[in-house]
Structures are given as structure tokens and as C-alpha cells.
Amino acid sequence: MADSERSMATIKDVAVRAGVSVATVSNALNGKPNVGSAARRKVLDAAKTLGYRPHRAAQAMRTGRTRAIGLVLPDLTNPFFSQLAQAVESKARRLGLLACLIDSQNAADAELEGLSLLAQHGVDGIIWCPVGARLPRLLGALDRPIVLIDRPRPGFSVVHANNAMGGRLLAQHALQNGHSRVGLLSGPRNVQSAQQRRHGFVSAFPDRIQIAWEVRVGFDGILPREAREALLRRRGATLVVAGNDLIAISAMRFLHEHDVQVPADVSIVGFDDISWARIVTPRLTTIAQPLGAIGTRAVELLHECMSGAQAQNPALMLDVSLVERDSVRSI
Amino acid sequence: MADSERSMATIKDVAVRAGVSVATVSNALNGKPNVGSAARRKVLDAAKTLGYRPHRAAQAMRTGRTRAIGLVLPDLTNPFFSQLAQAVESKARRLGLLACLIDSQNAADAELEGLSLLAQHGVDGIIWCPVGARLPRLLGALDRPIVLIDRPRPGFSVVHANNAMGGRLLAQHALQNGHSRVGLLSGPRNVQSAQQRRHGFVSAFPDRIQIAWEVRVGFDGILPREAREALLRRRGATLVVAGNDLIAISAMRFLHEHDVQVPADVSIVGFDDISWARIVTPRLTTIAQPLGAIGTRAVELLHECMSGAQAQNPALMLDVSLVERDSVRSI
DNA sequence: GCAATTGAGTTAAACGTTTCGCTCACAAGG
DNA sequence: CCTTGTGAGCGAAACGTTTAACTCAATTGC
Predict the structure, then answer these.
(1) Mutation choice for B interface testing from A53, A89, A142, A245 by most B CBs within 10 A
(2) Across A294-302, average pLDDT
(3) Do B281 and A103 touch (CB under 8 A)?
């Protein structure tokens, strides 16, 4: 009895204890119809008292499914992604799936290497926020369901937030607070979500909001000189609209160091509502993405794809909401 | 040729293409000595042109090793852990190991469930920052190398920072800046690292630093009423020493809302140097843990344990350093 | 020149599942 | 009474590796 716990009981052990064949054990455990109720009971009992757990590797070899999924992210250090990761892992576990992590640290080659590692381990599907603008060739070869997250690519399932809507919400909020001349610290041109945020904002009230200036900035929040100069001169802008919270927070930090007060001297808004948005001074007004929901839905979608159901709805777009805090002044 | 890429080439395919037996392929690929240089070449060539990758599940079944490790953390959302996770994943990948994530969200039962999921998948080892004060019974049953991270438990390998040293560094810094009366917002009594930080600080200069008050606070930075009151009254303390950065930042936020200026009215120090420490206002003076090194060393240690080498050094303690920023005033 | 040794390669078993096809008993239909 | 059908269960093959045991030729030692 002591060693029944020690090194994992096998299906064979269950079979002998229940007095049936291994085939019957397998059938009983997997709910196949061709097993009588008496035998089924015996098997279930035996399995329980032996603490039997199917050997995943063996199962995988026979069935080709591992009940593991891959999660490929560009940067766990970014709270946006760590929240996402938390949601994904949690939902996966609730479905009995193991989440295998790859953090490419924004390097396309590391990402590729990671994908290949996942493929080698035979994960059943992949949730992926790609760093490269176009998806690498490898994709055909890895041949598993993929659900993109946050960054759509033609021909792929994706779940992401309604970025354009966020942009519009921001425009509306700007107007309501009397800002009609703004500066843009937009995200990278090759990241689609950045484009949509920008487009949502600019096209919402083209005749009532003027763009005083615009500079493109990386999503990591590092401000090039051009951006810093723009922040200092401002050319009449009373509000700066940042491509995401990291950018907004960097800008706030920079302004603070140069003795310009937010929001007294200039207002600022972000996008994402990462947890940092709540702790900076002043607290940042921003657009909240339903991070938990995005992660959860992505896993659900992937799970459906894995169960053969060809997803007809390759794109899932979730609503965002404005969260008002202290970084916008009403004028 | 088209379908040689499609559904993963097997060792058999390599064997026929190279004109040898599968055993020889296996031996060649695993660097066994009993294969001639001519055959070895042929095998290597065939494997490369076929894009052969060993089927991990099959390998696992035969050898009992999966080349995957588990990473069990209490809260990915906490930047301390997400940085750790990044380091762990990166190092693991460099060793050809897949990192499987469990985020228990500080719930002991979720943690247990996660460990069992990992065991079922047959991970070769586990890196674990445990939430519970004492380790659950299950442990004997899961029977794989375990390396703890940040939180030592009797009888287990651990890699963590020198918390006591951090406490001493802080005390020294306090004195250098003329603070001889301080308040303590210590971490939880049942978390060892919290105790060591506190002890390092208090016992460094017992006769030159007075503790004006102390209240125990959770590491998540949520301030109970007692703590808030203490922050407002202060009883002559010119410096508050927080159990970690989250606590320090919460305190700063609270003080700011009640119009007391940091560091003009009161100074404050944290512990951990999470990324937030850099972005709050004022930027937080704190103790930096070598997060990257902790993660890396943990993986290395685990890897050694997995390779049979019984680790003689169950505990690895890494030095910390003071990072001076703007939250301490010299008086 | 013959036995012993070595080097290079092969065959086949094993790992723990799932599943296909089979058997066997029994019931129903004619 | 014989065929056919059905429900319950079993035996064995297969999945892709690794590895122990083995063969066979060439080389060495004497």
C-alpha cells in the first residue's frame, strides 16, 4: 500500500485490482458505452483507491494530444501582459490545460525559437501575441490551432479590444473637458492596435479637435528626443494623447522633471489601464481594456478550435471603457 | 517532399533516408560512441534535411524525462514575480527546457491543484515560491526535484536574496541621512523574508535608531486602518521603512492624498526595487534584489538536481544593493 | 594462424495508453 | 431450430523513442 502512492499507479494496476482487462479500464475511464455498470463501478473504485492518474506522455503518444497549450508573449514585465498571462493560465487550468510560457522579450528570433520548442513538446494550441509585423514562414509547419491576442494578422483568429472605440471615447472625453487642441504621442506605425487607437481618436471629431503635433513612439515608453522636445514646446496643445499607459507615464515623469505640472499645465491620457496607472501621480486617466476577459475568451476560443470545431468567427472584439482619474483638467 | 515538412518526420524516416537502422539514428543523435563517422554524417544530414525533431512525448515515455519544468508563483501581476518569471523562462529556454506556468493567485488550494497538474504532466522539476506557511503533504507524492525561490522552508533547496543585509543597508542609509527615529511598516509575521528584513534593520544599530512605531502589513500593499493612522501621526518618526515596495508605494499614495509631502515632510524607503519604484513620484529609494540572477540561479540549481547531482548546497543567498533615489531627505 | 578483443551496427523489447477487431453468451426473429 | 443481432468484454497492435542484448567482421595478441 505504501508504494501504491510512491511511483504513479498505471492503468494495468487498476486493471488487475478491478479484475478486468486494461482495455475495459480505459473504456470505463473515458466514458465509452461498451462497459457494464458493474465493471464500471469496480474500475472507478480501483482507480480512486490507487490514486490513478493517466500518464500524460503515454496518452499523448497514442492520441496526439497533450492537453497543454502555449502562451507566447513579448514581455511579461509589461503589466499589460502579466495580467493577460494570469487570466490565460487561470482559465486554462480550469479547463485542465497546462499553460506553457514563452517570453520572447520582444525578440523575433527568440519568439521563433520558443514556438519551435512548443511545437516539439506537442502543445495542442497556441495563444500568441506576435512581435513581428508579419508572421514567420514557420507557421505552416507548426500546424496547430493558433489564437492571436491583441494583435490581429490577416487569416488568423484573434481576440482583442475595440481600440478604435477607445480612441473615440478619448476624443469625446477631451471635448467634454474643453480640450480642442492636442498633441499625439502615438504608438508604432507597424502595430495595428496603435493605428486603430489613433484613427479612432482623430476621426471622431475631425472638425472640433486639432492635432497640434504628433510623434511616433515605441510601446515600451522610451521617449526619443523628438518626443521630449514636443512635450516641452507643446505648441498650444492642452492635452497629450499617448499611445499607451507606458508612454503616458514616461511623459508624465519627463514633464515632472522639467517642472511642468500635470494636469495643471497640461493634461494627459493613456491607454490600457495597466496597474501602474493607478499608482502614479497624478493617477492616470485612461482606457481600460477587459484584460481578464480577453485572456479568458482567447482560451475558450482556442479550446473550441482544439476540439475540432472550426471557428467561424476568427475575430472577437471586446468593448473598452473610459476610466477617469486625475490626469485631465477641465478647462 | 512537400509532406516531409507537414506532419513531423519520425526517427524511422530519418533511418530509411540515411540507410541505417533506427537504433543507429538514435545513437548518432544522442552522441553515443558506437557509431562510425560515415554513418553519423549520413544520419545528421538526413535529420537536417528532413527537419527532424524528436517527439517529446515518445521520448518522455521511454526515458521518464520531459525536459519541461514547472514554475509556481503566487501572483504574476506583482512585478517582482513577473520579472522573476521572465528570467526563469529565459534561462530555461536556453537550456532547452520548457517552462510551464502556474499562478496560484495566492490561493493555497489553487497552488496544490497546479502542482498536481504539473506532476501529471511529468515535469522534471519545479521552481516554486510557496504561498502557504508550511508545505503541503502532497510533496512526498510528487517526487521530483524542487527549488524554492525567495521563501525558504526547512529541508528544501532555496535561492533567495540576503534580506538581512538589505535591512542593514537601509539602517546605514537612514543614519547617514540623519534619521534616528523611524516608523516601521513591516511585512507579514509569517513570511520569513519579511522577518529577516526587519531584523537586519532593527539589529544593525540598536542604540542609534529608535523605533517610534511599527505596524504589520500584507505584502500586497493594502494598508489597514492602523497603518493609515500611524502614517498620519508619525510620533516623531522622520523616516518610514516599508516591508516592500508595494507597501511603500501605497503609503506614498496615501500620504500624498492627505497632503503630506514625501520626502519633505517624511522620508520613505522600500524593498525589492520593482519596476514601479522608478515611476512613482518621488522615485523610491529601495533595496534592489538581483531578480534576474535569482531566477537564473534557481534554474541552474534545479537543472543540476535534475541531472542527478544531489545538491549539497540547499541554500543560495545573493547579495542585494541599495539604490538611492528621491524618497529620502537628508536632515 | 587461431582465439580473443574491439568497433559498428542491428534486432527487438519496453514504456503506458487507446482503439480496432474479435469472441462469446444470450436474446430475438423467422 | 437456426440465423442474426446485440451488449459486454478481451487481446493485441500501434504510437515514437531508447537501450539491452546480440551479430558479424575486422583487428589484435600470441
Answers:
(1) A89
(2) 96
(3) no
**Mind telling me how many Å the CA of B208 is from chain A's nearest CA?**
34
Instruction: Determine which of A84-98, B115-129, B134-148 has the lowest per-residue pLDDT on average.
Output: B134-148
Q: Is nucleic acid strand C under 7 Å from A172's C-beta? A: no
pTM for the whole structure: 0.88
Do residues A68 and A121 touch, judged by C-beta distance below 8 A? Answer: yes
Residue bearing cell 518610514 = B240
Enclosing H/E stretch for A294: helix A291-306
Domain spans in chain B, listed from the N-terminal domain onward:
3-54, 68-161+291-319, 163-289
Alpha-carbon gap, residue A230 to A266, rounded angstroms: 12
B163-289 has CATH 3.40.605.10 classification: no
Q: Residue A226: which pLDDT band, with cuts at 50, 70 and 90?
A: very high
Half-sphere exposure of A292 (CA within 13 A, CB side): 3
Give CA–CA dist A314/A143, Å, rounded.
17
Grid cell for residue B57: 512525448
Express each pLDDT in B234-265 by its tens digit: 999 999 999 999 999 999 999 998 999 999 99
Radius of gyration of chain A (CA): 26
Q: What Å value separates CA B37 and C1' C5?
A: 21
- Could you give the CA distance from residue B204 to residue B211 in angstroms, rounded to a whole number? 12
- At B102, phi and psi to the nearest 5? -130, 125
Architecture category of domain B3-54 in CATH: Orthogonal Bundle (1.10)
Q: For residue B188, give the C-alpha cell.
A: 507579514
Nearest CB neighbour to A103, from listed B90, B96, B256 = B90
Please state the separation of Cα A158 from the chain's center in Å: 10
Domain A68-161+291-319 = CATH 3.30.870.10: no
**Is it the case that residue B95 has pLDDT exceeding 90?**
yes
Fold identical between B68-161+291-319 and B163-289? yes
Q: Kindly give, in sequence order, each residue whose CB lies less than 8 Å from that of residue B262, ignoring residues fewer than 6 positions away.
A: B252, B255, B256, B268, B282, B327
Asked if residues A245 and A271 have their Cβ atoms less than 8 Å apart, the reply is: yes
User: From CA A186, how far away is CA A215, in angstroms rounded?
Assistant: 6
Compute and round to an integer the Cα radius of gyration of chain B: 26
* Distance in angstroms (rounded) separating the CA atoms of residues B163 and B156: 18
